[in-house]
Amino acid sequence: MVYDRVKAVEYARRWALGANPEFYHFGGIGGDCTNYISQCLLAGGGVMNYDKVGGWYYNSSFDRSPSWTSVAELNKFLLRKVDSRGPFGRICEMGELQVGDIIQIRQNPIRFNHTVIVSKIVGGEIFVCAHSDD
Predict the structure, then answer these.
(1) Strand partners of residue 103
(2) Which residues pair with 56 in a beta bridge?
(3) With left for phi above 0 and alpha for psi between -120 and 50, is residue 110 left, alpha or beta?
């Protein structure tokens, strides 16, 4: 998969303040951040992985992988050994970040609880697009 950062960020900016009606919006029932970021990854060329155990896919609000909407599960999916379809990632330093990168935030050393996408970097200042509860 070749990740098109421009397309991912265009999508992120287009839907940052609204919900794409092609996808269920999970705001108010646990948050929409990872669902939104999964949409951004898909727009950037992400290939759905329909593995029922460890895949990354969305067909409907009732037929989706845990990694499509769960911060922790997306983390596990992106950092897996790259031997299957779908987007993948790696841990990097802040100075390595690029527009289109995904950042996962945690409030304690164990649990990630928010996912955002880098939409702009100006003079070392990092701007992001995100969803959460409305």
Answers:
(1) 116
(2) 49
(3) alpha
8 Å CB contact between 87 and 1: yes
**pTM, full prediction:** 0.92
Length of the chain (residues): 134
18-20-24-28 Cα dihedral, nearest 10 degrees? 0
CA nearest neighbour of 105 among 18, 10, 37: 37
Q: State how far the Cα of 37 lies from the Cα of 117, in Å rounded to an integer.
A: 7
Distance CA 56, CA 14 (A): 22
Between CA 23 and CA 38 the distance in angstroms is: 11
C-alpha closest to that of 7 among 38, 34, 41? 41
Joined together, the tokens standing for residue 48 give 């759905």
102-128: pLDDT as tens digits: 999 888 888 888 999 999 999 989 999
* Pairwise CA distance, residues 131 & 18, whole Å: 9
